[in-house]
């Protein structure tokens, strides 16, 4: 993958902001987005997965959720309200809310609404 190609340089800040990654077009998966310059593939963009996946297969929010669940002693759905608030704070401190659709993923894991997750975050701030 040409690191200095103008297309790669132009899209790198956006790709980083989306928590995506640049991959060689030859290594692209079916769901990656291949970008071309003058008709030639230059780079592919691998967007973060929004599917429920196991922490072993995918880092990101799922991995952070698993770590917080272990730390707090079990299923996040079974936690008390106070402990769910603590879980949200731990996830925020670890960068979980930098990922796309993270509030929805966290809400589902906790068994609360997305609105509740935002309330927990706002109370802490």
Automatic annotation (TrEMBL):
This is Transcriptional regulator. InterPro entries: DauR-like, DauR-like_HTH. Residues 62-122 form the Transcriptional regulator DauR-like HTH domain. Pfam families: HTH_22 (PF13309). It comes from Kribbella speibonae.
